[in-house]
Amino acid sequence: MVNVDTTNVQPKLKISGLGKRYGEVVALEPTDLTVDAGEFVTLLGPSGSGKTTLLQMISGLTEPTTGTLHVDGRDETATPVHRRDMGLVFQHYALFPHMTVGENIAFPLKMRGTPASEVRERVRETLAKVQLEQYGDRFPRELSGGQQQRVALARCFVYRPQVVLMDEPLGALDKNLREHMQFEIKRLHREFGTTVIYVTHDQEEALVLSDRICLMNHARVEQIGTPREIYSRPKSIFSARFIGLSNLFVGKVSDAGDGRIVVANSNGSFEARQENCGPLVNGKAGLVLRPEQLRPGPAGAGENDITGTVTEIIYVGSDTRLVLTLQDGETLSVRHDPAATLPALGDSLTYHWPIDVAVVVS
Amino acid sequence: MTAASLSASPRNLRLRANALWLAAPAIAFLIVFFLIPVGRLLFLSVQGDTGNLTAEHYSRLLHTEVYWRILIITFRIAGLTAFFSLLLGYPLAYWLSQLRENRRNQMLLLVLVPFWTSYLVKAFAWMLLLGNQGVLNRLLGGAGIIDGPLPLMYNEFGVIVGMVHAMMPLAVLTMMPVMSGIDTRLSQAAGTLGANGAHRFWMVYFPLSIPGMAAGGLLTFITSLGFFIVPAFLGGRQQTMLAQLIIIQVQELVNWAFAGVLATMLLVSALIACWIYNHLFGLASLSAGNSTTDKTSSAWTRRFGFAILEKLAWATSAVTNRFAGKSRGRLLPAYVALIVFFLVVPTLMVIPIAFTSSDFLEFPPPGYSTRWFSLYFNSPIWISATVRSFGVAFATAIAATVIGGFAALAIARSRSRFGGVVFAFMLAPMIVPRIVIAVGLFYLFAQMGLVATNLGLVIGHTVLSIPFTFVAIAAVLKGYDWRLDQAAASLGAGRFQVLRLITVPLIRGGVISAFLFAFVTSFDELTIAIFVSGGLKSTLPKQMWDDMILQLNPTLAAVSVVVLVIVTAILLVADRLRR
């Protein structure tokens, strides 16, 4: 009983001060991150943000310049790649072209000296898990992109690594297949109970898959949190812009007392709660509003309101978005209420929002 | 819109099929000066005195033991050469393939310069090194390691050393592109799946490099089969090869029929080697370097192969685990340095000898002088041979680049199903042993009055150069994005402007290197020159050959230095222009 408790306290993966530089170029600033057993954590960021570098250092393919990596409390910083019990799913699958699907999946088991009969059994079992029972004797190039991806997943999960790392594994697939494979990955994660670290630059994918998202930019971590936290409480302008659609009013911040602050710019003054305000630089900040938080209505109907001219009507299937141009030329995206009649270009509209929803960041 | 594009497409198709006509000059040229002469030579082998069909020449071959011995020796030497070229060259090719592209192109010169260095210069250098009074015996004797001179030359050892030195660059240059095409992520993937270095190499990298090894082995084997320069100078009587026998039959015995028999043997051997290769790997990977081996070989042989590789991997890891981690990383660079030394330095031995003050080929030279260079520059024979070689090489380079270039264009633009046949035909002069082509051309030229003419030389050298220019230009055209032409046309450029402003600037590098490679091929060419040039119409290699057979002298060293400098300069220019 006591033992169970300590393993629960112990994180699966503990990254402390892990960083990488190539001469003058910083690929990743010293970074801290802990991942619990069975957790699905996504490293999300634009290209060059250091997410792949971090993943490669965890896998052991890249040697860190600074910092340490602990797995189950053991220091694994210097362990060579083939002795780390981790699985890596590559962006372009990296299936061995000279081996059949079955041989590809058997490879990691053979490397571990698994007896032949058990290898056969486990390969069969895993092929069934990814619905490729009939394909064991085919070569990878005879499969479609989605099937190759499933083989890559099977090859990784077959030896039950304690941590599975995935480097944009769905990047080469088209949109429909990608969504299907997201479910597949979620299912495998659930069934095997594996800890997964997943790299992507696709924010939607990150929101769908992750227990937690580690948002990265400019070779460092920008924000770590659950998808909901990051979406509704971004800690920086970058976070607000990178995840979801957001409107941003940048202006001067002043204290309005009573736990309120005011962000003022040429479009007006907008109130927000002090508690929703992150640490600020130079008294300047941006007020973040999601399109769906704005409601149409006459001026004064809510705690904050703003008026603009409709300059763009965008139909995206499930939704219609309006773009309003404000006094100073800035634009505002709002969601059109499907029950209301569609406005015409050039109409003047007013939207309002409650004080609680706005977040202030810098 | 739809109607217009529909009506346009059949016209486009016809245009594309027509593009194959661009290969017509090349096909015609190779039929007249390659296919017919070789065919005639083969036919001579079954022709009796009155023109009747006969097997008498073959029965002579069957019933003379010495010919059998020569055949076996030829196979043995060619086989050993191919084996050692692959074995010793593989780590070098591997090392090169792991470098970043910029650095690899620089380091590749270390292989390219030996590759293009004249076989005669290389053979001459080895004679300086391996002789009884040669550099090696002097050094070893001087150091007191040996009492008397070691027999390093005029035996099989000398031939194999010279042949491997001559052929290894070809093996490396053939293997390297296949190796650098192997996705590095596959090794990484194997690592994350638990494979250590030995397993990563034997189970992933090595099987993927096999097509390259096969292609390298094939080319070195075929080239060695028809080779005569190294065995002529470094071998003894016991190392006489088939090509030497053909030369004797033609030049001394004037026995065309039996020369035809031997040529047939040589050609059939080369074709059998090609057939085996093609059966196992497909000829496509000779030029392309894709690795689609698995389909042809049965599942059983594959499994067997993998089992062996797995054993090798476990064995290797058992051995390497005993070494400390540090020294392991230095093993490959040290080996590469050794092999590059073997490829480059022996040839450089001609330099000190060329500047000797002695009348003999002594090492170390007793003093410094430039008398051998002034002898060369003041000798009408050497200078006229040099000038002729330059002229012939220049004309050859132009002819081969134009003919081969249009053929390459034809292949790139055509979707005709005959494209593959044309492709194979263009490469055929590379597969057929040179000696066969040379003797066939000699027979044809004798009837046309082209023996001992510059035109005859240019024609012969063009036949040999077309595969090189064709491949070089086909390679750039393969990477060329034809949509750029369409883009330029849609922006208002006329056909000629498209060619002048878009196509030519983009493929210029490939065309220039094709030109220079054809130039060097002709400049170094000896086989055809032995038959087609002669007396006062000698080329530089032919003059060197005659001198080397007659008597080794320091002038040859001076000439070698001149050749070395010219070829190296051309390669450096080609390398600079390619970037």
From TrEMBL, chain A:
Gene3D superfamilies: 2.40.50.100, P-loop containing nucleotide triphosphate hydrolases (3.40.50.300). Transmembrane segments: none annotated. Residues 13-243 form the ABC transporter domain. GO terms for molecular function: ATP binding; ATP hydrolysis activity; transmembrane transporter activity. The keyword Lipid biosynthesis does not apply. GO terms for biological process: quaternary ammonium group transport. It holds the Pfam family ABC_tran. The keyword Transport applies. GO terms for cellular component: ATP-binding cassette (ABC) transporter complex. Keywords: ATP-binding, Nucleotide-binding, Transport. PANTHER family: SPERMIDINE/PUTRESCINE IMPORT ATP-BINDING PROTEIN POTA, SPERMIDINE_PUTRESCINE IMPORT ATP-BINDING PROTEIN POTA. Belongs to the ABC transporter superfamily. This is Putative spermidine/putrescine ABC transporter,(ATP-binding protein).
UniProtKB/TrEMBL annotation, chain B:
Signal peptide: none annotated. Residues 71-277, 386-574 form the ABC transmembrane type-1 domain. Pfam families: BPD_transp_1 (PF00528). InterPro entries: MetI-like, MetI-like_sf. CDD domains: TM_PBP2. The chain crosses the membrane at residues 20-46, 66-96, 108-129, 157-180, 201-234, 254-277, 332-355, 381-409, 421-446, 458-477, 498-520, 555-574. Its main location: membrane. Coiled coil: none annotated. It is found in: Cell membrane. GO terms for biological process: transmembrane transport. It comes from the Bacteria. It is a multi-pass membrane protein. Keywords: Cell membrane, Membrane, Transmembrane, Transmembrane helix, Transport. PROSITE patterns: ABC_TM1. GO terms for cellular component: plasma membrane. Belongs to the binding-protein-dependent transport system permease family. CysTW subfamily. This is Binding-protein-dependent transport systems inner membrane component.
